[in-house]
Design a protein that fits this description.
D-Maltodextrin-Binding Protein, domain 2; single chain; Extracellular solute-binding protein; 4-stranded mixed beta sheet; alpha/beta; about 450 residues; 14 strands; SBP; signal
């Protein structure tokens, strides 16, 4: 189970334009970096995404025209992938044209700098602490930025400059906020999409009720999800052993938390004994003790994904950036998508993000208002798309239900903070829960340790 959870956490940490782990080896649900291709594909999806407000009649929130000369300055945009604007779709062609016109008008050049992911956090944080940032606009992960870097006054608050919702995703600034101020902005309108991939071909063969039917009935919840998984655990050749399984892994703490609209932390407080969190712990314990998920065969964190690819496992909890690889490896199977099921305290579907990241401006960089103005005007376009990630979703799914499910899951993206705290007992708790120890015992055992891990970061 712990390996399964590691796998999902690692998968999710590579999404949303290449968002990754905290890089400190602490193992707090942030996993390992996925390959560069996955990160680049996710970035392209975000950069090509249209505004969620395209075609709307909302009030114009764009910034008024500004007149300034940057004196030939080079603006460096730093990320762990090359964010150079391509010409792969009409939206990006318009963005590139805007950039070229802005460079002439305001007398600057924009350079996109890629730093190897494996050393990214160490390098950018060290440069910030030294007062010599690697760039003018720098991508940072929330888990090592909030509160640590803003407590040291190393970043400009930017929320007063990011009012144009046609360009800036308000969630990005909200997620990267501290003491009422937002310290980051988005490079696109797309949100991370996570949920449940399922094998429709296997579903039809087994003759059981589809997850989509439950979604359509507005009855896709933990109970129906568990029932579908159990129904697919079958011995189809009557040899006394299961040969089809309903669930590739039952170790998914983060999706379970957001699906019940809760978290292990609440600001600077532990949240283990919150009633919603207790419901999550009981759910994970039930999945483990009732042996709902496919048992491990001793593989590494990629094992659940490999189980799903074999074609004999119905459901797999994963992230949308994986769909291309799944389709390539499962050409003989029809793959569907539904959101992670709602918990008993939830009001909507959600995606989980354990390692959120966004763009920031170091405090030692001058004129942050001009930099964000330039970014806004680059991306303030009349998109050909009706919604964020339309091109990606429509190229990967032909079923309108799958597309709508993905949009619903992405719209409900929530960010979890347990990865912010290096000593947070994340995997220890999962190990206890999946070993059959009582939920109350687990909470009593780890409450103080969890709070101490939070206090360490908040320096209390």
């Amino acid at each position: 189970m712990m390996l399964s959870t590691l796998m999902l956490a690692a998968s999710l940490s590579a999404c949303s334009g290449g968002s990754g782990n905290n890089g400190n080896g602490s193992g707090n649900g942030n996993g390992n970096n996925a390959d560069a291709t996955a990160s680049n594909n996710a970035a392209a999806s975000n950069n090509a995404a249209a505004s969620n407000n395209a075609g709307s009649t909302e009030e114009d929130t764009s910034s008024p025209e500004m007149d300034f000369d940057m004196g030939g300055r080079t603006i460096k945009v730093v990320s762990w992938w090359d964010m150079t604007i391509g010409e792969d779709n009409p939206d990006n062609i318009e963005r590139k044209k805007n950039l070229e016109e802005l460079e002439k008008k305001h007398n600057f050049k924009m350079e996109f700098v890629a730093v190897d992911y494996g050393e990214y956090q160490q390098k950018v944080v060290a440069s910030l602490l030294a007062g010599e940032p690697l760039g003018d606009i720098v991508r940072l992960g929330k888990n090592y930025t909030i509160p640590a870097l803003v407590q040291q006054d190393l970043l400009w608050p930017v929320d007063e400059y990011t009012k144009n919702t046609k360009v800036f995703n308000p969630k990005a600034t909200e997620f990267m906020s501290y003491n009422g101020r937002g310290y980051a902005f988005s490079e696109g309108q797309g949100n991370l999409i996570t949920g449940i991939f399922y094998n429709r071909t296997l579903l039809n063969k087994l003759g059981i009720k589809s997850p989509q039917d439950y979604v359509t009935e507005d009855n896709w919840n933990w109970d129906t999800f568990t029932q579908v998984a159990k129904d697919a655990n079958k011995d189809t050749n009557n040899d006394g052993k299961l040969d089809t399984w309903g669930l590739a892994s039952a170790g998914f703490m983060d999706p379970a938390l957001v699906s019940n609209e809760t978290s292990l932390t609440n600001g600077d407080k532990q949240n283990l004994d919150d009633p919603k969190t207790v419901e999550v712990f009981n759910f994970l314990s039930k999945l483990a003790t009732e042996k709902v998920g496919r048992p491990t065969e001793g593989g590494d964190w990629t094992e659940p994904g490999q189980f799903f690819r074999q074609g004999n496992t119905l459901m797999y909890a994963g992230a949308m950036y994986e769909i291309g690889g799944l389709k390539t490896d499962m050409k003989d199977y029809d793959i569907g998508f539904v959101p992670f099921p709602k918990g008993p305290s939830a009001t909507a579907y959600h995606s989980s993000e354990a390692a959120f990241q966004a763009l920031t401006i170091p405090k030692s960089v001058e004129n942050p208002d001009q930099l964000i103005y330039i970014w806004e005007k680059i991306n303030d376009i009349d998109s050909i798309y009706d919604y964020a990630d339309q091109a990606s979703l429509e190229s990967n799914f032909t079923d309108e239900n799958d597309i709508q499910n993905a949009r619903d899951a992405g719209a409900g993206m929530l960010v979890l903070d347990s990865g912010t705290f290096p000593k947070f007992p994340y995997y220890e708790m999962i190990g206890e829960l999946t070993s059959g120890n009582s939920v109350s015992t687990v909470i009593d055992t780890y409450k103080a340790q969890a709070q101490a891990a939070i206090d360490e970061v908040y320096k209390k």
